[in-house]
Amino acid sequence: MTDLFKDKRVAIFGVANERSIAWGIADAMYKQGARLAFSYAGEVLEKRVRPLAESVNADLVISCDVTDDTQIEEAFRQIASKWGALDVLVHAIAFANREDLEGRFVDTSRKGFAVALDISAYSLVALARAAAPLMTNGGSIITLSYYGAEKVVPSYNVMGVAKAALEASVRYLAADLGPQNIRVNAISAGPIKTLAASGIKGFKGMLHVVEERAPLRRNVTQEDVGASALFLCSELGSAITGETLYVDAGYNILGM
Ligand code: NAD
């Protein structure tokens, strides 16, 4: 199949560079005929995102820091004025202060907790609310989670709590937006070496553990996640909403 996303308008929030999971998803959708819009957070990342966006003939490259409601509003104003409607929203955004991704979770500060939950979980709610009115023919929203949402993973700490909130938000958003035929799902991906991952203390060790113990005896790639996003966001996933799909070489099924 080469045109699963023919003429679909896809807004991608969360590309930082070519290693980003969001870039794997964008590339997969582009190869299936999607028209793309990219957001970037800050001038430093703009320099990375623009050339990538050009390489897939993106229609739009928009500045958007998701902590700022005005910037979210402006981003979707630009999408509306360029496309008139939107079919798919990809949310691949997370952040926690470095000091909260090591040591003990119990030491998380009030401020650190709020920052992590705001950027990594609330932003999905804010983007979904802005995107929904543009999804006039129905639509699909996906976000990225991780196993640390449900089990304790050393150093993942406050991000695990944020991912738990994110996965619960997926279910509540799916219930709210389902009557408009807007589906909302999460992919719980295995660890992949990206910019965000480099902030987690002992991240390399996580890759080793997965490779050694996961049923498929390997780590997952951007391409694995991209392919699963194609499934969830296209007609192939037409009756799936509110789900968290593991794309983790089977690691989550293990008890011991
Ligand atoms: P990444 O660093 O490439 O992407 C994270 C993105 O978040 C960046 O593009 C960054 O600009 C964006 N971001 C951070 N703060 C922002 C803000 N205030 N406003 C707008 N954007 C902001 O890393 P990634 O690993 O590709 O992360 C993408 C998603 O995948 C995240 O939700 C992450 O938690 C999740 N995830 C990653 C892994 C992994 O091992 N890499 C595994 C499972 C889930």
What is the topological layout?
Layout (H helix, E strand, L loop, with lengths): L8 E5 L7 H11 L3 E6 L2 H13 L4 E4 L5 H15 L4 E4 L18 H22 L7 E7 L11 H21 L4 E8 L13 H11 L8 H12 L10 E4 L9
Parallel strand pairs: 1-2, 1-4, 2-3, 4-5, 5-6, 6-7
Helix pairs in contact: 1-7, 3-4, 4-5
The structure holds nicotinamide-adenine-dinucleotide.
Short recap of the structure:
This protein has 256 residues and is an alpha/beta fold. The protein has 7 helices and 7 strands; from the N terminus they run E-H-E-H-E-H-E-H-E-H-E-H-H-E. A 7-stranded parallel beta sheet has the order 3-2-1-4-5-6-7, with helices on both faces.
CATH homologous superfamily identity: NAD(P)-binding Rossmann-like Domain
Distance between the termini: 39 Å
Number of helices: 7
- Please, what is the average pLDDT? 97
Can you tell me the number of structural domains?
1
Radius of gyration: 17 Å
The poorly predicted ranges are none
State the order of secondary-structure elements, H for helix, E for strand.
EHEHEHEHEHEHHE
Hetero groups in this structure are: nicotinamide-adenine-dinucleotide
Number of strands: 7
Question: Tell me about the biggest sheet?
Answer: 7 strands, parallel
> How large a portion of the residues is in β-strands, by DSSP E?
5-15%
Structural class: alpha/beta
Coarse morphology:
globular
CATH class categorisation: Alpha Beta
Query: How is the largest sheet built, in terms of strand order?
Result: 3-2-1-4-5-6-7
* CATH architecture descriptor text: 3-Layer(aba) Sandwich
Give a description of the structure:
- By secondary structure, this protein is of the alpha/beta class.
- The chain has a single domain, classed as 3-Layer(aba) Sandwich (Rossmann fold), CATH 3.40.50.
- It is built from 7 helices and 7 strands, in the order βαβαβαβαβαβααβ.
- The chain has a 7-stranded parallel β-sheet with strand order 3-2-1-4-5-6-7, with helices on both faces.
- The chain is globular, with a radius of gyration of 17 Å.
- The model has no long low-confidence stretch (mean pLDDT 97).
- The site of nicotinamide-adenine-dinucleotide has 27 residues, from helix 1 and strand 5.
